[in-house]
């Protein structure tokens, strides 16, 4: 029975106290956590007082007190392994319960340090950190926590069950990282004793890290649009501080700065090499003027409607893909460096292709795409000229409007319509309309009809100037030539007097001189003294006069008077021969006509004779030639001139001194026209007659023959007489005279010889003696008729 009660009791107690404890003892506090050396007190009580009758801290002996609660106090905990047990005794149970006691000690020191290392770390290498905790208990409740700054990195716990203080070391493996440079690491020792007292956490002094790492650029290539503010900033973090070296064909000076200012930049590539003791890295800056690192080739497309086009888009920097976007001819995104927009038959008037590229940009650059300007053109189907509200010929002085129709041309803003007269550009029209599809356009030209334009050819030319990328030569289309006719009233330009050559007709006046104008060409009529004249008849020298000329066409009539003088070549009328009296003023024997008045020249034997005051002498008979000339011709005439004159004697010996018995011949010759009659007379007796040449012979002269003989010549113009003297000499006187003459001659010869010899000695020269002159026979001067 008792055993059963006890069993039930135990069962009940165990039910009341929980699964672990069959002993209905309760501690207050339930467990003891106490620092080594500190004091504590604890109550022990039974959980079911009704059945208890003994509690003791010492053991199940007489110290048991019949009380509900016993207190135990410890002044100073000195035993690390101190045990306290509370005993209980009742009629239902007899049991004991150990008091759970935890004795702790915060560490004396916590410190952090490297294992086998000192100085800066190198990025990427592994290092071991350790945390030393001195004198801590109980180690099983110890947690070591690793912190970088405020960040918990790791924590370590210990399996050691030792209750006494120990020295512990926790370790941490780390890989050095650039982010750790300058970071502070520390470790904390924490005793986690459950619900017990708050135990201060002991932290190590922080450990500052120094990590050496090489420069590393985040973007290896960047594209920069050059403007005034842009600069190349290669600055990068590295430890130790790196050095910078720039390379570019555009850099004039070496630079070791991390930054290149805008002023030193021009489009191109700039490579910056950054280096320190750990390593090096490079960065390429591509500086460009354009906003997008692609090149469009050609930059502008000019395409004829319906023809093909191909334009390249070329990447200037490494990229992640590029493509053309277009309604026609777009391309797939490609990683190649070039992509081509290609359309074989462009039939889209307003196409706007653009090329885009995905590339590494520096901050704030806009999305990158480049539009290709495309001009689609079409030459006109037809270009034609017409009048506005007019037909037929134009009238001089009036204004007319011409219109040029250009059909189906695009783009009209590039169209120029040019007006030409012949090869002369008159005017041109351009258009500002921005429509891109084909249109019909009209250009007009105001012209004032002018006679000079009669028969002129106008044309208009539609030309498309599509700029430098456009086709060369410029595509153009020209209208058919448009001939115009200008009517104008007749005008007689010149009414000056006219001097036509004989044989000219009146009709030839306006033909030669263009003196009558008008369109249509006027009809010309002539009249003289109000009666019409046949203008085709040849004019004679008698037709000079004041003529009226009248010009008529559909527009008007014009007339004026013209003084006409008919010119003709010289005419000459001469006889075959003329008789002229000597010493009379000579008149031209012939009449010479002509207009203009001809000039006359008289020739004899090829020599000009001063003809105005020509007074012929007795011997000027002969063959004469008269020449007369004006601008229309020369006429000559040859005739004989016979000079009528009184007789003239020729010279002959007139004085005869002869000895007796000599023979003498007296000679007398004369000329005269008509031929004179001649005779000899001696002592008033006619002794002989004849003509031209008469002689008289005296044979065996005697003194009776001495005396004056007379020769007489006569005709109708005069009578001439010539005397001859005949003397008969005494012979004795002749002999003395002969001797004296011989002596005289010898003396002269002697003198000449002496002079000659002397001179020769002086000058030693040579001289010739000139022979005596010969004398011609001439007619004797003649005193004229007596
Ligand atoms: C213990 O004592 C109580 C009261 O005194 C009593 O009621 C109970 O029966 C006893 N238990 C046993 C097993 O005797
Ligand atoms: C004490 O024990 C009795 C009998 O065993 C039980 O009835 C009672 O509930 C217990 N009281 C406590 C507080 O456990
Ligand atoms: C406390 O109890 C444990 C085991 O129960 C024992 O090993 C130890 O020696 C005891 N300590 C003392 C001081 O009696
Ligand atoms: C502690 O014990 C656990 C399991 O028993 C074991 O896995 C761990 O390695 C031990 N720790 C140390 C520091 O001995
Ligand atoms: C712990 O280390 C300290 C200092 O090195 C030493 O004085 C002490 O004896 C050590 N304690 C233990 C339990 O080894
Ligand atoms: C390049 O650098 C910029 C800022 O400097 C950054 O936003 C971007 O992500 C970087 N690109 C790469 C691929 O590193
Ligand atoms: C260059 O860039 C660095 C950081 O990348 C910055 O600190 C520095 O101020 C820049 N230099 C200039 C001149 O802007
Ligand atoms: C500039 O750099 C780009 C990309 O690296 C390269 O394609 C290009 O040829 C370079 N240009 C020059 C002029 O070096
Ligand atoms: C693009 O050009 C760069 C040099 O400018 C060259 O290195 C690269 O191979 C080219 N890429 C392709 C896909 O052709
Ligand atoms: C022709 O048109 C293009 C645009 O299509 C324009 O850029 C260019 O200036 C034009 N040329 C002329 C001469 O108007
Ligand atoms: C040329 O044409 C324009 C209008 O198209 C006009 O204003 C201008 O007077 C013309 N010039 C001449 C010389 O006709
Ligand atoms: C231009 O004129 C032609 C002929 O008159 C006509 O067929 C065409 O439709 C016109 N085009 C436009 C754009 O008006």
Defining traits:
Immunoglobulin-like; 8 domains; seven-stranded mixed sheet; five-stranded antiparallel sheet; 3 helices; disordered C terminus; integrin binding; Ig-like domain-containing protein; transmembrane; Ig_I-set
Description:
The structure is a single chain. The protein is mainly beta. It folds into 8 domains: 103 residues, Immunoglobulins (Immunoglobulin-like, Sandwich); 104 residues, Immunoglobulin-like (Sandwich), CATH 2.60.40; 65 residues, Immunoglobulin-like (Sandwich), CATH 2.60.40.10; 81 residues, Immunoglobulin-like; 103 residues, Immunoglobulin-like, CATH 2.60.40; 77 residues, Immunoglobulins (Immunoglobulin-like), CATH 2.60.40.10; 78 residues, Immunoglobulin-like, CATH 2.60.40.10; 80 residues, Immunoglobulins (Immunoglobulin-like), CATH 2.60.40.10. It is 7% helix and 47% strand. The longest helix has 32 residues. The N terminus and C terminus are likely disordered. It binds 2-acetamido-2-deoxy-beta-D-glucopyranose (NAG) (12 copies). The site of one 2-acetamido-2-deoxy-beta-D-glucopyranose has 2 residues, from loops. Keywords: Cell adhesion, Disulfide bond, Glycoprotein, Immunoglobulin domain, Membrane, Repeat, Signal, Transmembrane, Transmembrane helix. InterPro entries: ICAM_VCAM, ICAM_VCAM_N, Ig-like_dom, Ig-like_dom_sf, Ig-like_fold, Ig_I-set, Ig_sub, Ig_sub2. It is found in: Membrane. It is a single-pass type I membrane protein.
């Amino acid at each position: 029975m008792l055993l059963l009660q006890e069993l039930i009791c135990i069962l009940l107690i165990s039910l009341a106290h929980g699964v672990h404890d069959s002993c209905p003892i309760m501690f207050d506090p339930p467990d003891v956590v106490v620092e080594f050396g500190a004091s504590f007190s604890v109550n022990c009580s039974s959980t079911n007082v009704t059945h208890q009758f003994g509690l003791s801290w010492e053991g199940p002996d007489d110290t048991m007190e019949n009380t509900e609660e016993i207190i135990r106090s410890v002044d100073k905990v000195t035993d690390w392994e101190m045990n306290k047990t509370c005993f209980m005794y009742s009629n239902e149970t007899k049991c004991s319960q150990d008091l759970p006691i935890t004795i702790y000690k915060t560490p004396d020191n916590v410190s952090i340090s490297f294992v086998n290392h000192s100085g800066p770390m190198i990025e990427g290498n592994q290092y071991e950190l350790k945390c030393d905790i001195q004198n801590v208990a109980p180690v099983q409740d110890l947690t070591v926590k690793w912190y970088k700054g405020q960040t918990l990195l790791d924590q370590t716990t210990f399996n050691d069950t030792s209750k006494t203080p120990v020295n512990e070391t926790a370790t941490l493996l780390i890989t050095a990282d650039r982010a750790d440079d300058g970071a502070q690491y520390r470790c904390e020792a924490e005793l986690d004793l459950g619900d017990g007292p708050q135990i201060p956490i002991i932290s190590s002094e922080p450990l500052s890290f120094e990590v050496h790492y090489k420069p590393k650029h985040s973007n290896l290539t960047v594209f920069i649009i050059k403007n005034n503010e842009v600069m190349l900033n290669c600055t990068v973090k590295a430890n130790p501080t790196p050095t910078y070296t720039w390379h570019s064909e555009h850099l004039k000076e070496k630079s070791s700065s991390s930054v290149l200012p805008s002023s030193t930049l021009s489009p191109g590539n700039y490579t910056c090499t950054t280096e320190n003791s750990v390593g090096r890295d490079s960065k390429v800056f591509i500086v460009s003027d354009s906003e997008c690192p692609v090149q469009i080739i050609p930059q502008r497309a000019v395409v004829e409607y319906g023809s093909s086009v191909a334009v390249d888009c070329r990447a200037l920097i490494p990229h992640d893909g590029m493509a053309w976007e277009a309604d026609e001819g777009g391309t797939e995104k490609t990683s190649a460096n070039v992509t081509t927009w290609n359309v074989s038959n462009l039939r889209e008037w307003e196409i706007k292709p653009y090329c885009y590229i995905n590339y590494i940009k520096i901050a704030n650059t806009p999305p990158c795409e480049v539009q290709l300007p495309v001009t689609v053109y079409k030459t006109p189907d037809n270009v034609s000229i017409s009048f506005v509200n007019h037909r037929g010929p134009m009238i001089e002085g009036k204004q007319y409007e011409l219109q040029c129709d250009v059909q189906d041309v695009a783009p009209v803003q590039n169209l120029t319509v040019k007006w030409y007269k012949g090869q002369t550009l008159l005017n041109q029209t351009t258009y500002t309309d921005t429509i891109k599809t084909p249109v019909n356009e009209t250009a007009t030209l105001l012209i004032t009809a002018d006679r000079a334009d009669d028969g002129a050819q106008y044309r208009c030319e539609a030309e498309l100037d599509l700029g430098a990328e456009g086709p060369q030569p410029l595509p153009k289309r020209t209208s058919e030539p448009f001939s115009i006719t200008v009517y104008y009233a007749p005008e007689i330009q010149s009414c000056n007097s006219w001097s036509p050559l004989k044989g000219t007709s009146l009709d030839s006046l306006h033909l030669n001189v263009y003196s009558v104008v008008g369109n249509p060409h006027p009809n010309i009529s002539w009249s003289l003294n109000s009666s019409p004249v046949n203008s085709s008849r040849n004019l004679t020298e008698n037709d000079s006069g004041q003529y009226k000329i009248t010009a008529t066409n559909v527009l008007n009539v014009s007339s004026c008077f013209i003084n006409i003088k008919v010119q003709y070549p010289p005419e000459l009328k001469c006889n075959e021969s003329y008789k002229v009296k000597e010493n009379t003023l000579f008149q031209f024997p012939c009449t010479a006509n002509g207009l203009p008045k001809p000039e006359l020249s008289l020739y004899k034997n090829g020599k000009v004779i001063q003809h105005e005051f020509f007074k012929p002498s007795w011997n000027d008979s002969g063959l004469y030639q008269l020449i007369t000339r004006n601008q229309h011709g020369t006429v000559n005439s040859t005739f004989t001139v016979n000079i009528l004159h009184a007789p003239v004697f020729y010279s002959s010996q007139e004085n005869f001194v002869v000895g007796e018995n000599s023979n003498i011949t007296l000679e007398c010759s004369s000329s005269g026209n008509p031929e004179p009659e001649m005779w000899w007379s001696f002592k008033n007796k006619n002794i002989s007659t004849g003509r031209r040449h008469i002689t008289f012979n005296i044979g065996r002269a005697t003194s009776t023959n001495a005396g004056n003989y007379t020769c007489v010549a006569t005709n109708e113009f005069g009578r001439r007489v010539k005397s001859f003297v005949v003397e008969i000499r005494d012979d004795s006187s002749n002999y003395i005279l002969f001797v004296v003459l011989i002596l005289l001659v010898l003396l002269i010869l002697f003198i000449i010889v002496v002079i000659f010899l002397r001179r020769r000695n002086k000058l030693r020269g040579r001289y010739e003696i000139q022979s005596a002159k010969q004398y011609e026979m001439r007619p004797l001067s003649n005193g004229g008729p007596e």
